[in-house]
Amino acid sequence: MNTARVVLVTGGNRGIGYSIAEEFIAQGYRVAVTARSGSGPQGALSVVADMTDAASLDAAFAEIEEKLGPVEILIANAGITRDTLLMRMSDEEFDEVIDTNLNGAFRVLRRATKGMIKAKFGRVIFIGSVVGLLGSPGQVNYSASKSALVGMARSVTRELGGRGITANVVAPGFIETDMTAALPEEQQADYKNRIPAGRFATPLEVAKVVTWLASDDSAYISGAVIPVDGGMGMGH
Fold it and tell me: Which residues are catalytic?
């Protein structure tokens, strides 16, 4: 019964978000994805939304609620990067990343929890990053936006934990996507040397952890950071 629950994956039109949506569909969930452009996998309800615009998110939620029902499982995955060294980083490059990755997660969280409180059930899963806790040169904006999700998940846990709602962070390391495939071979080899597992993850390996966290099997896990990074960020 639980797998007929309604799932929303933000940024579900490519990369990890697309794989997460695909895996939820494969497991029989009712899945909606939001994206600024493009669409999610076959079988998903694709809704256009902008993470930086509360009104557009409200409209997206209204459409999802009408067509599928209230969102019970929220995967806050939408994110952007504007990598550059600190001394060269503009206010705009910092603000843009924070507004999408952090403020955007807050906007969808606030909207989704209305229905979750009513239902006395909810799963909130933030897609963080190994660099949120490990740090990364050239990513002051991105790593700050991702580490902030940990505080958000833990505060939600304390605030709403008694209402059947959990909030966790999944922190992927390097994943095989178009982005990593485009890196020069030498750079890929250098990254793999830093990962105890010696390889990048497949997007499915992240998706399987996310679907497990959304399931009844993990009802007693909340406020956790679950790394999917091959051991790269240990101790962080």
Answer: 142
